Amino acid sequence: xxxxxxxxxxxxxxxxxxxxxxxxxxxxxxxxxxxxxxxxxxxxxxxxxxxxxxxxxxxxxxxxxxxxxxxxxxxxxxxxxxxxxxxxxxxxxxxxxxxxxxxxxxxxxxxxxxxxxxxxxxxxxxxxxxxxxxxxxxxxxxxxxxxxxxxxxxxxxxxxxxxxxxxxxxxxxxxxxxxxxxxxxxxxxxxxxxxxxxxxxxxxxxxxxxxxxxxxxxxxxxxxxxxxxxxxxxxxxxxxxxxxxxxxxxxxxxxxxxxxxxxxxxxxxxxxxxxxxxxxxxxxxxxxxxxxxxxxxxxxxxxxxxxxxxxxxxxxxxxxxxxxxxxxxxxxxxxxxxxxxxxxxxxxxxxxxxxxxxxxxxxxxxxxxxxxxxxxx
Length: 377
Prior knowledge:
Mean pLDDT: 84
């Protein structure tokens, strides 16, 4: 038997339980914030989600209290034409302050005949507006976002400037996605890790763009590895510290460093070259778009709130969990209307079939039908 060199439970102090850490976070103590900044994995994700939901609920309650005292502006009703949903939303909301967007905006749709649709938003109309806006903005054919080859992850398109106000559009999309998170709405999307990690200020120090490059462009990564291990005279390859890009039918040369077009790649600097290529492709090329998106997102979701999440947890916060779907939990949280109730024979038949006969794919389709997202929160 191996000899113990510390006492039992030496590394698990009693005051470092998840409940104690959450209590110190609520009290604003510095050491709890350091834990969530540097070792967020010591807290279960469920506990962090509950804490975040509590913060949002508390903020909403404070705003309602201020409204009753007449300290804040009145609710703004925005009319959105269904044919111009994305355009109308962008034009109306770009001048609305973040705090107003979080608490004082209601949506009314205008139909194709120009008539107001019955009902003013409480939850459902806003949810529909957010989902449709996000679906439109993230569609690669729209030109703001592209998808990676292998995993079909979304990231800002380097050619997004096809839109005149593309940076304002990224700021708007960041706000809309953050508003969905703020309202507890899960959206069925998957962002590329090298993009979404930019929301986490303090978790980028050890990130290697070269190691993650295959997720964006496996062929480019393969070519860079060839250069790294090339045994011949690398000058024969005719490389310089620059990149030629196709932009709207023209070849544009981007330098990786000042004077890069006139700096040949050699055996002594090739390692620097391949790292700079990876950094350019995954960071520099989309930096402005990413910065605008993150600024919009942080205007709605407090930056301090994000610090306690790791990258996978942030993905789950935005896009839901990829775990199996628990229909039993869904059943517990269903509210019945129109004369139906839990013991109604139709309801009993429904749950008997879904709980006992549905495949995972069918469960996912059911969840998407009910919540518009195929993933559980």
